């Protein structure tokens, strides 16, 4: 029986995947904000300490996006905190537990190979000036590409396979946190054009049944994203890992 930890496993895509894997016989630990506030470095570290000591699959699906710039109690912009810092920290802290498994996998749900937009704002990672939800989300997507790109280089002897996965537009209910009229517009677009969380979960469960053998894979739904793209630049990845190590150590 596999042990699968899913952050963001209480609703949306992560919730549907948790249900599916549980029904298939996996032991699933589903994490939502009631279990730990993953915008907090301290709570994320404490969570890692109480998770199982052998984990076959870590699914990083927690996300929260806001039209206003929200700063966490530790001084981080919320999107950056949950989407970048939190994922970096969990992948690092759970590495020993993952490496006790036969075929460990990190599955990171992100915007890889998506809209060709966004960049890392190296001089203003917390987006103190000119914040928009789009800018924060796109910076998060690019940063997650670098988290994947840098993982193998950072952990050269690890057997962990890292999969970046863009589920494309899914009617997950994520729009619930937006203000009107955007909530209604995005909700209507998701209902019309988005795939269901059940369909997204079916694809992810199939992927986890036979995970790619490579150390790093990036997929846009099922389609491979070439790792030669600039989003996976190794020197930028190393730079991000250094910055995140400093930020988490100081938090
Ligand atoms: N939906 C899409 O179209 C789409 C497209 C591309 C990529 N993605 C990516 O897929 C992932 C999942 O998206 P989704 O649409 O399924 O999201 P969702 O329906 O909004 O679910 C978000 C999940 O994150 C958890 N969460 C939020 N804030 C948290 C916090 N502070 N601490 C701990 N957990 C927290 C929520 O738990 P609670 O139970 O506490 O609310 C919930 O389980 C995201 O990373 C997103 O970037 C989604």
What would you say this structure looks like, in words?
There is one protein chain. The protein is of the alpha/beta class. It contains 8 helices and 7 strands, in the order E-H-E-H-E-H-H-E-H-E-H-H-E-E-H. It is globular and about 45 Å long. The chain starts with a strand and ends with a helix. The relative contact order is 0.16. NADP nicotinamide-adenine-dinucleotide phosphate (NAP) binds at residues 8, 10-15, 32-34, 36-39, 61-64, 82, 109-111, 166-167, 169-170, 172-174.
List descriptors.
binds NADP nicotinamide-adenine-dinucleotide phosphate, Rossmann fold, single chain, seven-stranded mixed sheet, globular, 251 residues, 8 helices, alpha/beta, 7 strands
**What's the alpha carbon Rg, rounded to whole Å?**
17 Å
- Tell me the fraction of residues in β-strands, as a range: 5-15%
* Ligand list: NADP nicotinamide-adenine-dinucleotide phosphate
Total number of helices: 8
Instruction: Give the helix level as a range of percent.
Output: 40-55%
**Backbone shape:** globular
Give me the CATH fold name: Rossmann fold
Strand order of the largest sheet: 2-1-3-4-5-6-7
Number of strands: 7
Question: In the CATH hierarchy, what is the class?
Answer: Alpha Beta
Please give a quick description of this structure.
With 251 residues, the chain is an alpha/beta fold. It contains 8 helices and 7 strands; from the N terminus they run βαβαβααβαβααββα.
Secondary structure blueprint with pairings:
Blueprint (H helix, E strand, L loop, with lengths): L2 E5 L4 H12 L3 E5 L9 H10 L6 E4 L17 H16 L1 H5 L5 E5 L23 H22 L6 E6 L15 H12 L3 H13 L6 E5 L2 E2 L9 H17 L1
Parallel strand pairs: 1-2, 1-3, 3-4, 4-5, 5-6
Antiparallel strand pairs: 6-7
Helix pairs in contact: 1-7, 2-3, 3-5, 5-8
Bound molecules: NADP nicotinamide-adenine-dinucleotide phosphate.
NADP nicotinamide-adenine-dinucleotide phosphate binds next to α1.
């Amino acid at each position: 029986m596999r042990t699968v930890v899913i952050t963001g496993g209480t609703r949306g895509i992560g919730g549907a995947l948790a249900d599916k894997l549980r029904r298939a016989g996996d032991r699933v630990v589903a994490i939502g904000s009631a279990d730990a506030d993953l915008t907090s470095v301290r709570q994320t570290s404490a969570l890692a300490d109480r998770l199982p000591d052998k984990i076959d699959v870590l699914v990083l699906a927690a996300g929260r996006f806001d039209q206003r710039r929200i700063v966490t109690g530790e001084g981080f912009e919320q999107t950056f905190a949950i989407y970048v810092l939190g994922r970096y920290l969990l992948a690092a802290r759970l590495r020993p537990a993952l490496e006790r498994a036969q075929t460990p996998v990190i599955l990171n749900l992100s915007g890889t190979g998506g809209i060709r937009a966004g960049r890392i704002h190296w001089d203003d990672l917390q987006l103190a000036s000119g914040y928009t939800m789009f800018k924060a989300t796109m910076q998060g997507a690019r940063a997650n590409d670098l988290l994947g790109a840098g993982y193998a280089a950072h952990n050269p002897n690890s057997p962990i396979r890292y999969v970046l996965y863009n589920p494309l537009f899914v009617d997950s209910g994520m729009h619930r946190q937006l203000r009107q009229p955007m909530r209604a517009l995005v909700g209507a677009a998701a209902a019309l054009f988005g795939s269901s969380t059940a369909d997204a979960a079916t694809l992810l469960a199939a992927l986890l049944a036979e995970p790619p053998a490579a150390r790093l894979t990036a997929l846009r739904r099922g389609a491979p994203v070439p790792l030669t793209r600039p989003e996976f630049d190794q020197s930028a990845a190393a730079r991000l890992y250094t910055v995140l190590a400093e930020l988490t150590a100081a938090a």
